[in-house]
């Protein structure tokens, strides 16, 4: 329900800042139709194997351009400035920016979520918690043998997980900030002297796009730092101490739907007028946009990576199967916190992009569907693109990409199809893990189909393979831009345009359903082969002295 007069149209702008591009989309709040949009791709920097960086200034400039262009298009379409009520931001998560408090200039290129340069930092953190545990054992007289035989949840890293919901991994922003402080003395000095600020991309954009220079983040982004107490939604003093990070450089943690500041600096007619009133990590925004608003509802977003999330209500459910316990959203300063289980797969669209840009065996990512469809199967080829190790549910930083099963019969179409299939195998593993965790918590999946979105969900063959390998229907919504829609919905709530969640739920409509077309026997056989292929990818990065992360 909305409190606005239904006769007068009302719009909300979403800024979706993703791993590969930034887009601004203006939604009509009555039915989620797109009134105007603009998109820009930013540069990916790969300075060393495993390192991935973004230029935060470039991202900011493109965000400004996207907003300006959409504003101009809206004006041309006769949409008045007054009818646009708010801005919502959805962002790639964990990507870490450090900037100068005064000038607002970044001190380093942003370390992207999938960058794995922090493996040594993670190992050192693990050793530190292990060492602290040894020290405690010596004090309490508990023997190492007794400790080894203890329940696996007695491991110190598991207690870390209990506080944050996360494993110690290269993925999370606290580890990236620690790496920057350990390896760049100018960043360390600036952080310790209080002249530098840290933030994920939401905080960075809010600082530079608000009149007030708001240094804030929302609970969903904060829940990806490894620094937030998930229950209390506060920075955790013990964790900050373990990382050597002063709280003064961190943003204030807010809800996902409230007014953070007023838009400025874009050079368009909306400057000084529009409140920025919604902020969510992009996967959390997609949950809202997919109307996964109550316990047991699930969505999967296929972008650069692929992220499946299941809503667990107002309860943080621990995972015994390698999933993350994370914030789902908190839609209002006085609203309750909602939690989710998440399985993050590092390489989805990025794999197709790699086939196009690096191997050049497809002309474009869009061509991948047609090429893969030219063969009926992969010819028993399996591709494990563990470029940054494997994320959920295995969390193995020592895995590396591998292709198995090739013969002289193998053609590029088999490889392309195998690249699509691997996304679906990984997603299926994650959904099964989530089902088990839910069951252990006395909960169950609710939708009788998986709701899907993201750039890669436009690939119909991928969606069909997904339904086949899951053994359940896959449903794509009419608004493919679920992430942007979720950010807009949060902003509509934050600005008082929507007065309850029903207005958000009402925006969801099905576009197409994909139903499974293979039987259980074939499904199980293919999953077995996939598991064998994954086994072969593990432990490849041993020359670095790697061990698997917890
Ligand atoms: N038709 C397609 N088939 C396969 N992959 C695609 C297709 N269209 C887009 N992609 C992939 O989806 C990703 C872009 O999706 P998007 O949701 O915009 O990602 P992000 O938010 O991570 O930037 C790219 O990695 C691209 O390779
Ligand atoms: O930008 P996307 O869609 O690849 O999402 C990135 C995730 O937020 C990383 O955790």
From TrEMBL:
Entry-linked InterPro entries: ATPase_NBD, Carb_kinase_FGGY, Carb_kinase_FGGY_CS, FGGY_C, FGGY_N, GK1-3_metazoan-type, Glycerol_kin
GO biological process, one term: glycerol-3-phosphate biosynthetic process
GO MF term set: ATP binding; glycerol kinase activity
Transmembrane segments: none
Coiled-coil residue spans: none
Residue intervals of the Carbohydrate kinase FGGY N-terminal domain: 11-144
SUPFAM superfamilies associated with the record: Actin-like ATPase domain (SSF53067)
GO CC term (a single one): mitochondrion
Alphabetic keyword roster: ATP-binding, Glycerol metabolism, Kinase, Nucleotide-binding, Transferase
EC number: 2.7.1.30
Pfam families: FGGY_C, FGGY_N
Domain Carbohydrate kinase FGGY C-terminal intervals: 298-494
Region (Disordered), start-end ranges: 133-157
Gene3D superfamilies associated with the record: 3.30.420.40
Catalytic activity of the protein: glycerol + ATP = sn-glycerol 3-phosphate + ADP + H(+)
CDD domains: ASKHA_NBD_FGGY_GK1-3-like (cd07792)
Biological or metabolic pathway of the protein: Polyol metabolism; glycerol degradation via glycerol kinase pathway; sn-glycerol 3-phosphate from glycerol: step 1/1
Domain of life: Eukaryota
Annotated family: Belongs to the FGGY kinase family.
PANTHER family the UniProt entry points to: GLYCEROL KINASE, SUGAR KINASE
Protein name: Probable glycerol kinase
Organism: Cyanidium caldarium
Species lineage: Eukaryota, Rhodophyta, Bangiophyceae, Cyanidiales, Cyanidiaceae
